[in-house]
Amino acid sequence: MTHPTEVPEPGPRDAETTHMAAAGDTDVVGIAPDPALAEGILADAPAADIFDAGTEQRAQEIIARYPVARSALLPMLHLVQSVQGYVSQEGIAFCARRLDLSDAEVSAVATFYTMYKRRPCGEHLVSVCTNTLCAALGGDEIYRKLQTHLGSAEKPLGHEETAGTPGEPGSITLEHAECLAACDLGPVLQVNYEYFDNQTPEKAVALVDALQAGKKPGPTRGAPLSDFKGAELQLAGFFPEDEATYRADVDGPSQAVETLRGAQLAADRGWTAPGAQDVPLPELEKK
């Protein structure tokens, strides 16, 4: 791609300058031969009706956490998902304009991490671990069972597809996931990133049936179940302010007996790890 005809000066600058700098780029004009259309592509997306004043305030609170605005991108994308249930083009523009990034830079991040969804999600996101150990213990069977249960034998629900209307009560987006870091409790699945351990096809079917009926079964570990948008708001860093509500809505057990069994066995038998040797770093020895 050719260099923009107008290159912004290095350092902090108005985000609009960054986006409009490419207006004279021949590659951009080649994609959109009509100059008016090219300007439309580079202009702000119509996000005002989607992201209200409350969302704007939260965005500014997120940005204020970091010494450099662009460092706030990950929680900003979670904030967008807490509003829309996915990362839309409007959401990408919303982040880019406030963080002095281009739409392409935001898109690169949003498409790299699997937690950012580019299609609207259901009220609940169900993630089934199909990595090696969980797959061997039945994860693949669980995923296939949910595919046909939420879809049909003739048309199983695909990866990141939704049973029901996205965002509506009872709608479920199904995905297979890589390791969910609970190998000692496999096969596992998550609902809105909360754990349901030691699953079977029958347990998984009962779980999604309860979700579709408007119920919120308690996870094996972690916080009480919310919906996908509620989980995204927490991932953006916003929690209940009073202690009682926080404990009720967010806090929960984070460990299982199986996970601590090795440490408990070592404690019972008096096993200890050898102490670390105080060895100077090589670069310090050279000096």
UniProtKB/TrEMBL annotation:
One of its GO terms (molecular function) is 2 iron, 2 sulfur cluster binding. The keyword Phosphoprotein does not apply. Its cofactor is [2Fe-2S] cluster. CDD domains: TRX_Fd_NuoE. Gene3D superfamilies: Glutaredoxin (3.40.30.10), NADH-quinone oxidoreductase subunit E (1.10.10.1590). The keyword Iron-sulfur applies. InterPro entries: NuoE_dom, NuoE_N, Thioredoxin-like_sf. Coiled coil: none annotated. Pfam families: 2Fe-2S_thioredx. Residues 268-287 are annotated as: Disordered. Keywords: 2Fe-2S, Iron, Iron-sulfur, Metal-binding. Belongs to the complex I 24 kDa subunit family. NCBIfam families: PRK07539.1-1. This is NADH dehydrogenase subunit E. It comes from Amycolatopsis sulphurea.
